[in-house]
């Protein structure tokens, strides 16, 4: 069986289900992580917000290139293949002729998808459709937390007409009990895929490979490893979801 995981950003699949990817590869299944927002920023100055993130990440202006290298190390820790799409992260996307940026603040990242970007959903769906084998299991984010790039990815995936799996976006899942209650009431189903102690270690290593992003959520790699162990113990593995119409 072949699994393709759609990752809005370089670290999302590693964070949310890296242990499961490792277990699938161990069983002899093929797994590939397709990062949607993996492109370089367009030419020109970055927004002050993007520059502030680069400082926190301790990256150069070529952060996308540096993060691709981190991601390749992360995928190698899981035994997964990778593929990158050319769409830049939302923090880099300029807003039309004005020279402004669509997403130039923390609040904007979790606001509405800008109307000027809605056409990208169909374009992305076409790009995904062209590269997907017919018998592939596709896993996309539930979009917990509401990040615009996560929602863009999910909406494109749902245009494929496939029987999708969905993963809970970590760490946003930690504050998202209500959506699961509503999903269950609407007939969604879920399955917990067990992850071993060795799978947890690979999961932690895949996250640690995204060195620039550790400070986004944790004070150190040690704190991250403890948090992931607690999440793993609570979940018993990785839970994937399917919508009510899926069988």
Write up this protein:
This protein is an alpha/beta fold. The protein has helices at residues 12-26, 48-57, 63-78, 106-109, 119-131, 148-157, 177-185, 197-208, 214-217, 221-235; strands at residues 2-7, 30-35, 81-84, 137-141, 165-167, 189-194, 237-242. The chain has one domain: 3-Layer(aba) Sandwich (Rossmann fold), CATH 3.40.50.10320. The chain has 10 helices and 7 strands. The two termini are 17 Å apart.
Low-pLDDT segments = none
At CATH's second level, what is the architecture? 3-Layer(aba) Sandwich
Structural class of the secondary structure composition?
A: alpha/beta
CATH topology heading: Rossmann fold
Helix content: 40-55%
Report the biggest beta sheet as strand number plus sense, adding barrel if it closes.
Answer: 7 strands, mixed
Total beta-strand segments: 7
Number of helices, counting only DSSP H or I runs of 4 residues or more = 10
CATH superfamily placement: LmbE-like
Strand content: 5-15%
Order of neighbouring strands in the sheet with most strands:
3-2-1-4-5-7-6
- Supply the CATH class: Alpha Beta
Overall structural domain count: 1
Our Rg estimate from Cα atoms comes to: 17 Å
Shape: globular
- First-last Cα distance: 17 Å
């Amino acid at each position: 069986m072949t699994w393709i995981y759609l990752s809005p950003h370089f670290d999302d699949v590693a964070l949310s289900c890296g242990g499961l990817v490792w277990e699938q590869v161990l069983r002899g299944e093929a797994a590939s992580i397709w990062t949607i927002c993996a492109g370089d920023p367009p030419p020109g100055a970055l927004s002050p917000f993007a520059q502030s993130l680069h400082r926190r990440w301790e990256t150069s202006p070529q952060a996308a290139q540096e993060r691709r290298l981190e991601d390749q190390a992360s995928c190698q820790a899981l035994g997964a293949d990778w593929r990158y799409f050319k769409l830049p992260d939302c923090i880099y996307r300029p807003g039309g002729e004005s020279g402004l940026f669509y997403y130039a603040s923390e609040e904007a990242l979790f606001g509405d998808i800008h109307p000027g970007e809605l056409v990208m959903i169909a374009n992305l769906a076409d790009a995904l459709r062209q590269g997907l084998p017919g018998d592939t299991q596709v896993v996309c984010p539930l979009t917990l937390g509401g990040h615009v790039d996560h929602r863009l990815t999910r909406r494109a995936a749902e245009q494929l007409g496939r029987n999708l799996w969905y993963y809970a976006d970590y760490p946003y899942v930690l504050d998202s009990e209500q959506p699961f209650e509503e999903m269950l009431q609407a007939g969604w189903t879920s399955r917990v895929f067990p992850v071993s102690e060795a799978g947890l270690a690979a999961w932690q290593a895949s996250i640690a490979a995204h060195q620039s992003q550790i400070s986004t959520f944790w004070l150190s790699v040690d704190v991250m490893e403890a948090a992931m162990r607690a999440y793993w113990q609570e979940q018993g593995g990785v839970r994937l979801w399917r919508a009510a119409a899926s069988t």
